[in-house]
Amino acid sequence: MLNKNVLNSISWAKKENKLAHLYLFVGKSKNTIDLDILAFLKEINDFEINWEQPLEQIKNYDCIVLDGDQGELGKAEIEQAFYDMSLQTNYEDTNDKRIIVLKNIEKASVQALNSILKTIEEPFDNLLIILSTTKEKNVLSTILSRAQKIVSLTMSAQEIYGQLVSQGTLEPFCLVASYLADDFREAQNYSKDSFIALFDQLLAALIETIKRNNKHYLYSFLLNELTKENKQKNIFLLDSMKLITFGNVLFNDLKIKNKYLEQIKQISKELVLKFPKSIEFPLAIDAFFKFINENANFIIQKELLLLNLLEKYE
Fold this sequence. Notes:
This protein is α/β, with parallel strands linked by helices. It contains 15 helices and five strands. The protein has helices at residues 4-15, 30-45, 75-86, 110-121, 141-146, 157-166, 173-180, 184-190, 193-211, 217-225, 231-245, 247-250, 259-274, 281-293, 298-312, and strands spanning 22-27, 63-67, 98-103, 127-133, 148-152.
C-alpha cells in the first residue's frame, strides 16, 4: 500500500516535470501491487479508477497494460504497445503521460527487455513505463539499475479490516477474512458467501473431530475439498486451519465482539487440549505448499498431508 509520503513525492515530481521514464513496483502480493499502480495512475493522470476492477481491464487511451502471466511480454507485443502509444496525438499542451504497464516483468523475454531499455534511451514525449514483479531477484539487473523502485507494502490485517469497514462491508466474517488475506481484494473475495460457507464447514469438521472423537471426519472433509484445480480454495482452507490452530493465542487480546472470533478461540483451545500435537498442523501445511510450489505431484502431496494431519490428532 502506497503511503502518503510516496504519493506526495509522485505528485511533486509530476508538478516539477521530474518523473522518471521507468518505474518498478516490487512487493509480495500481486493484488497489492496492482492497487498501488492504480493509485499511481490516478495521481499521474487523474484516471477514473474502479478499485474493484482488475488493473489489466482498465479502459483508458492513456494506458496500455500487458501481463507476463498471460504470456503477453514477448518482444513483438511490447514493441507493438510502444508503437500504438507513440501514435497518440492528444498530448500537446498537456502534462498527461502515455503509460505502458508491464505486469510480472520477470516473465519477459530478454529481447523484450532489451526493447524496453532501448526505448528509455530515447523515449518519445510523455512516455512512462511501469513494471511490476513479486520476484525481484529474477528481474534483469540492467532493468533494476535503470528503474526507480517503488515498494508495495503488504497491509496488516487491521488495515485490511478497516478498509473493508470503511467501504461498507459489515459481514462479521470479514474480520477473519482480513487475517486470512494478503491484501484488500483477497479479503473482499474471502468475504463472499461461498468462502464463508466453506469456513463454516471446516469449523463443523473440527468440532466433529473434537467433540465426537470422529478422527476421520476432518480427513474425509479435506479429501473431498482439496483439489488440484482450485488453488485458491486450497489456500483458503489450509490457511484457515493454521489460523484456527493459533486462534486462541492470536485473538486473545483482541477486544472485538465477533461470533467467528469466539468460535475460533474456543475450537483452538479445545483442539490443543485434546490433541496437543495439533499445534504442528501449520508445519505440515507449510511443507505441503512448499512441495506443491516446487511442482511436486499434487495427489501424492495431498495424501501425505492428510496422513500427516491425521497423525497429529490420533
